[in-house]
Amino acid sequence: EEKRLSYEAKLDICDHSVAQKLLQIAIEKKSNLIVSADVTSTQELLELAEKVGPHIVALKTHIDILMDFDSDETILPLKDLATKYNFLLMEDRKFADIGNTQELQFSYGTYKISQWADLVTAQVIAGYESLDCFRNVGVVAIIGMSSNGTLTDANYREEATKIALSHPNVFGGVSQNKIPNELLLFTPGINLADAGDGKGQQYNTPEHAFTQLETDFIIVGRGIYRSDDAEKSALSYKIAGWNAYEGSL
Ligand code: 5FU
Known about the structure:
Layout: H1 7-13, H2 17-29, E1 33-37, H3 42-52, E2 58-61, H4 71-85, E3 88-95, H5 99-107, E4 119-123, E5 138-142, H6 154-166, E6 170-174, E7 184-187, H7 206-211, E8 217-220, H8 222-225, H9 230-248
Parallel strand pairs: 1-2, 1-8, 2-3, 3-4, 4-5, 5-6, 6-7, 7-8
Helix pairs in contact: 1-2, 3-4
This protein binds 5-fluoro-uridine-5'-monophosphate.
Residues 36, 38, 62, 92, 142, 145-146, 174, 188-189, 201, 219-223 line the site of 5-fluoro-uridine-5'-monophosphate (5FU).
């Protein structure tokens, strides 16, 4: 049984440059919080980033849900906020196609993700070589999903973990189960108030994620952006996440 490692210890074994940056920000800000900015306008996105920026290690986007995306109006100010508050931009694109198509989806089209994202999520369903296109970015592989009835069973997760461990572009995984120490673990499906959303999402607490899963980063969406005061709730999740991390060491 592997022992839970501190962020300092992970700095020694997670070599990818994006893993190094995330771990350094976590230590500096005493935060393991990633806010999922699932809002549909640029104004809401930038207002949320301004409020939660000081408390997070990364802002997770689904850039394709914006009604008014514009490189200049959306991405430039978002990048400025990321610099101002020292957080990374994580595009939760969950690429799931052959390498050539992913290469096009990553760099072309409306969103030109490769021009601004520090890290992206990708399914590993298309196999090892499908991830070769994500040079100059960090990949977080989807190993297990949080939703009820997901097909990511133990066998799938084991095979997905092998790809994640061996591919040089991959430095982490999204999962609801433990993954090897060499990978950073990202856990969505975190909410202090709700158990689910009536649409298949299943929630756990930060405490569960750190003690049971030995996660490295918690991802919180509606628990923060739907609350009355996003700044205040980001701070609560940051503190809850940090206390749970320290308690799990
Ligand atoms: F890979 C996954 C997963 O297994 N579960 C998720 O919920 C990703 N997510 C994302 O985290 C999902 O697409 C949302 O953007 C976010 C969770 O949002 P919530 O509002 O906290 O439920």
